[in-house]
What does this fold into?
Amino acid sequence: MLGNGFTANSAIAWNGTTLTTTHVSVTELSAPVTAAQVASIASIPITVVNPLNQGGTSLPLPLSIVSPSIDAVSFQINNSHNGYVAFASASLPSAASWSVNLGGAPSNALIVGNRVYVFATISGNSQLFALTGATGATLWGPIEFPGAAGFTYDAGTLFVNSGSNTASGVLTALDAASGKQKWTVTLPGQFAESWPAIAADGVVYLLDVGLLTAFNESDGAQLWSVQQKSGTDGSVAGTVDGIYVAAPDLTADFRPEPEA
It folds into this structure.
């Protein structure tokens, strides 16, 4: 748990029950929970319990326990890029249900809510399509982006990073249902990258030639940036524990908020 003003006497409470808590710092507490505590879908009130002379018990914040996602929202399925999907059961079909000619080489697909989002590379640019998962019919698109492009999805929005490798790139937010543009910002890095961003909990993270930058999902405002080793490329990875980037001889782990 991240916050401020924590002491060695602070403890995390799970639905009113105090957990065995480790005081990491004045801004961080940690406590283990059991598999049984997160086995069922629920909203759990989380509080911090302090002695009365140190503020007492905090107001509760909800922790949501949800079903594992079966959507592909990022490169290699999820923000961790581990290719894992939690199907209750699955069987492979004997043949493809449909196929679509997009007019160019297809990218990896994002699959969300029975919709398929995919780029086609045509004449050096990237064209984005939204297709229905049932038949492959076009829902909207194509929307053209200059140069190579990568994309990710979160909370009803597609985030596309695109551009030429000889100039700064652009990050664009699109309404996933309609394809309508929400906002666009020029990236602070030196050159555009086609490696996709990741997005979670209201923040988009993108690595651009060693510069890791966080953007607000709602309006594209830059929240923070951290320069890593020059030449660092690739897609940022994210887990519940942090945001990760890697260079040939360096791996870095950042707290999502703040960037530490």
In short: The chain has a mean pLDDT of 88.
